[in-house]
Amino acid sequence: MKLPEINIEELKEQFRQKQEEGKKTISLTLSISFALFIVLIVVCIVAALIIYVLIRTDIVPVMTDSQITAGEFALLLGLTSLFVGFFAALLSKKFLMKAIDSIVNQINRLASGDYSVRLKVGKPFKRLKSIKKVTDSFNKMAEELQSTEMLRSDFINNFSHEFKTPIVSIAGFAKLLKKDDIGEKQRNEYLGVIEEESVRLSEMATGILNLTKLENQTILTGITRFNLSEQIRNCVLMMENKWEKKKLELHIDFDEHEISANYEMLKQVWINLIDNAIKFSDEYGILEIKIHEGNNMIFVSVSNSGVPIESDKREKIFNKFYQAEESHSSKGHGIGLAIVKRVIQLHMGAVSVNCLDGLTTFTVALPGDESKNEI
Questions:
Q1: Read out DSSP for 5-50?
Q2: Are 211 and 345 a contacting pair, CB within 8 Å?
Q3: Which residues contact 274 (CB under 8 A, 6 or more apart)?
Q4: Do 340 and 273 touch, CB atoms closer than 8 A?
Q5: Model pLDDT for residues 84-132, shown as the tens digit of each residue
Q6: Can you tell me the distance from the alpha carbon of 375 to that of 302, in angstroms, rounded to the nearest whole number?
Q7: How far apart are CA 299 and CA 144, in angstroms?
Q8: Are 286 and 251 in contact (CB under 8 A)?
Q9: What is the pLDDT of residue 10?
Q10: Strand ranges in the chain using DSSP code E only, listed in sequence order
Q11: CA nearest 288: which of 348, 228, 326, 243?
Q12: CATH of the domain at 306
């Protein structure tokens, strides 16, 4: 049985990265501590050599002819260390402090909203593994913030459009209802539009509240063991009016599969995916759902015939309020796939989209029963 094109290694990489983050922090701390220790040793050695030269050349007199006392040596070592340390600090200011000032300046620019800033260090410090990790982490953070800012801007634009459209429709048709010269048929038609747009606003508000709740949730709760196949069949039956209206040909191909997950959350996933598949299918098209297991994962794919999603839009469709159909002519508010992605993330799974052979396929990969053998 051929598995969908899901990169399982990406799921494992998420766990590896969390473990490596802690190791990198410890490594950086040890590197800094070791560097300070080396500097201290070097200063003491230089100070001791200076004292030795001063004593051998009789520049510093001693109390006895044979040897210097412990107190004298400690005093000379302390004073010489302060002297050497002072000049070492002056020398390091030109090199070390310059790098630190650069980091501080770049951080201040980033804090002020300049997300295009990137951290660069000179060649002497670039060779140090710990410094390289700091610069790489900073630049990655700046890239993520820049990407987040772009998403925020797109979110506001799309959000404004999606809320403005039904509100304008409601206001417009309500204004028409005030006229005395409209017939009963038109009045009912206008009331129908107002009712439809009101429901749309209500669904949008509910979707936003659900998505906000999911985004703020970090721990998956309410996990139970249930029949995944039966759940998906029930979701298909819930959509019967929609797929019958489009006269779609259903291809339901799966055996019985069980999973441990949050029942209501996964139900939202299947409803959103099936609803999208029906919405963007051609009339007399195909709606296909498959389930199979492998590599300790459960794969659920929902496919539909119709216009494929352009490759540059396949990642963006999971963003809030983004619609691949930029004209916004189809009914929808661009929240469903964002909810799908977040629910799957909470279940430590992955979701992807692929267009091949006239079918657009959304594939969900969820952790399965590890006690089962791989297919």
A1: S--HHHHHHHHHHHHHHHHHHHHHHHHHHHHHHHHHHHHHHHHHHH
A2: no
A3: 235, 236, 239, 287, 289, 302
A4: yes
A5: 666 666 666 556 666 667 777 888 888 887 888 887 766 656 666 767 7
A6: 21
A7: 30
A8: yes
A9: 56
A10: 223-227, 249-253, 258-262, 286-294, 297-305, 350-356, 359-367
A11: 243
A12: 3.30.565.10
Residue with tokens 């029963």: 369
Task: Look at residues 147, 167, 192 and tell me which one is the last residue of a structural domain.
Answer: 147
Other CB atoms within 10 Å distance of the CB of residue 41: 10
Residue 372 domain-assigned (yes or no): no
DSSP 280: T
**Domain around 347:** 220-367
Which among 243, 244, 246, 231 has a CA at the least distance from the CA of 300?
Answer: 231
User: pLDDT digits over 24-38, tens only?
Assistant: 555 555 555 666 666
Compute CA distances 138 → 24, 36, 116, whole Å. Answer: 14, 23, 12
* Cα distance between residue 73 and residue 18, in whole Å: 51
- 345 within some domain: yes
Query: Distance between CA atoms of 102 and 282, rounded to whole angstroms?
Result: 57
